[in-house]
Known about the structure:
The structure holds 2 protein chains of 2 kinds.
Chain A: H1 6-20, H2 26-35, H3 62-70, H4 105-108, H5 123-154, H6 170-180, H7 183-190, H8 218-223, E1 226-233, E2 239-246, H9 249-258, H10 261-285, H11 289-300, H12 310-313, H13 323-338, H14 343-360, H15 367-378, H16 389-398, H17 402-423, H18 430-434, H19 446-455, H20 469-478, H21 483-490, H22 492-503, H23 506-520, H24 528-547, H25 553-569, H26 571-598, H27 602-614
Antiparallel strand pairs in A: 1-2
Helix pairs in contact in A: 3-5, 5-9, 5-10, 5-15, 7-13, 9-10, 10-14, 11-13, 16-27, 17-20, 19-24, 19-25, 21-27, 22-26, 23-26, 24-25
Chain B: H1 12-51, H2 53-56, H3 62-77, H4 85-91, H5 101-107, H6 110-121, H7 126-133, H8 137-155
Helix pairs in contact in B: 1-3, 1-6, 6-8, 7-8
Amino acid sequence: MMSNDVTDQLAVLGEILDQLVEPVTIGELTKRATTSPEPVAPSTVSIDTAPAVSRRPRLALGIAASIALVIGGAALAVNRSSGVSTRAPLGSANTTLAGSTSTSAAESATTPQPAAASPNITADDVFAIVRSETVMSAHMTISIGTLMQTCMAEKGFRFTPTLPEGDGVTSDTVFFQRRYTSPREQAGRWGYIFDSSILPTPNEPIEKPSPDSNKPGFTEAITGDVIATSTVTDSSGRVANKNTVRDGCGGQAAAAIFGSAQNYLNFIDRISRVESAGGESWAALLSTPQNSGWVACMKQRGFDYANLVRPHDNEWPAPRPTDEESRIASADAACRVANHLSDNDLKMLEHDLLVAILERHPIKREVELDRMFAALVAGPVSPADVQLPFETAVYEGVGYSQKEIHDAYRRFQVAEMRSCLKASGHDLSDEQAQLFFPPDEVSRTLLDALIEAISVEPGGTAALPNIGESLAMDCRRSTELDVAYQLGELFNGATMEISNRLVASDGYRSAVNRQKTCMSTLGEPNGSGERESSILSQASKTLGLLQSGNISKADAAEVAAKLTAETEALRPTANCASSRLRVERQLVAAEQTLYLEGHPGFIDNIIEQYRAVLKPLAPFLPPK
Amino acid sequence: MVLSSRTNEVSSDFAGFVRAIEPRLRQALVAAYGPVDGREATVDALSWAWEHWDRLAEVDNPLGYLFRVGQSAVRRFGPRPVPVDLLRAAVAHDPEITPELLPSLARLSPQQRTVVVLVHAFGWSQAEVATVLGVGASTVHEYLGRALARLRSDLEVHDEQ
Lengths: 624, 161
């Protein structure tokens, strides 16, 4: 008797599976462990188990084009014969970005990494590189752009780099997730609305022209003469790309990031070849019987397309999706399913084709290039690297750097803490008193502070004093001058005004939407903020208990381990937020510049007030 | 460190651990990767557990951890379609299962398939599934709802959840 109930059928299936799949015995483990390589243990908690996604050629503009974009146009540093026409205006973006440099890929690449097993790049490697290259590209855009800014300034030009708006992850991931995961559920409703033409492109620049871009010699200063070239061929021996490095500010910046111009060229060549293989596999996919079946299926439904990419190239009329678009998308989805071209089938097919291409035309694995790629994906730039004009002007005005003021405040706190505790009969050393404050010179979070406090050896000079929690808290409170907070208070009116403008701006809304979309790919975006707050709260509480001697180190270590695991689980969410914060900070910086220009005397007034705030720190500030 | 360099004696602790955890781990990996790769992944994950028994003792959620070790092992196999042939043969003559069920399951996303099989084939609670997959209960609920909707759509049946 056939059951119509899906859940009943699944229950029967479960019984069959239980009978079909024999239990694993201890004996098998012995055999396996002596004959098999060790499986890869997860280094992070991740729910993203999907294999790397396949790509359409139009999405595969890729890193070389992006780098060209960074350096001011395809003709400037990287020439591609593939005809990619993505070209950004010369020197676009933000007038306030500091020319701070970041850890170079070459520098980061010195970190020891496990050697790769295979001498050649595998299909999975290609997918992994393709999947990560927009992130890497975004980070490299910033690194190279900031270096170029300094170089151009030395040549007398005001240059503002083209900055990526996001981390580049979202559009690609979401596109494939929504396009291929549930076509029947979504195609009719959304049509092709999740096409990359609707989503922001991965490295969509914040376009503001460089102030000096029309001056004679500006372009030449960026480009310079050709100093190295290379040619990349595809698996048929045809020229896929020609890459060029020049000695202008663009090439110099790239050489600085990669250690040398040749390293940079090697890196670009590698990426070009990976891209070429990825493009070939997709092209091959469009010549498969599956694609022919899809074409026939669409024709039966009244739609004539040469291959499954074509509908994506349509210029869809607004408001989207129209009924026509929905009908085509629904037919597309059904034909993909019927021809095993949806979701994993498509990925598997492209994977097999890619394997064949790489067998014909292997790409040699080079550990050093792998390291550079990993270093760049990891992201050399944090939101904090974007300097804010308000702060910069104030620190210049009072004559001390942010770090000098911060260090002076720490010394002030330690002195106050010792004084307060001494009044209650506890004579602490400076080293001991410092333990009451997060060691933020080396720690980034309260959790780091907790872990560091746990690592202090008992009985050493910095052993934690055994004083009551209440007294510790009272004395800690007496040290709270919080100069950074007070500076924020002084700026409050202006920052509120700027905030109100920002939240209504397209750039900010776009950044927030990107963060949301990025988080929507993580499976469980809701509640991550609460979990983060909870982690910080527990770390803070445990640190307090440890510092006041009300919890053992072993117990604190247990808490820290638990919180570390929870923090690790939140890392993907934090990465989404970091991207948004960086964009937000850039926008704030631009707004602050405008504000300063429109309010003469504003910053002088703030500087005067801040000098008064800093008075208690005078004995601890360096002499000027 | 490989197992061959260790004693061949299996500690009673580890044997007990395997007895306790193997059925659930196997079900979870079979749900995710099918009967062949799922079982292979279970063997690999438990082999890893033996070799890293000390480390595993410190893990709060060993089932969830080993599930992810199994996932890593499957990735090493390389991506390939969920092998339904073995299953297809087993269910071919079962009068209670429509022939479209297995292809429909194969068309689900890995997460959806894992969740729906664990809950409705193996009878796990949504909370248990959430723990193993390392996601929230709400996420599991969402995957489950979508998976059932797609299966029903594919099979053109409309039963009550």
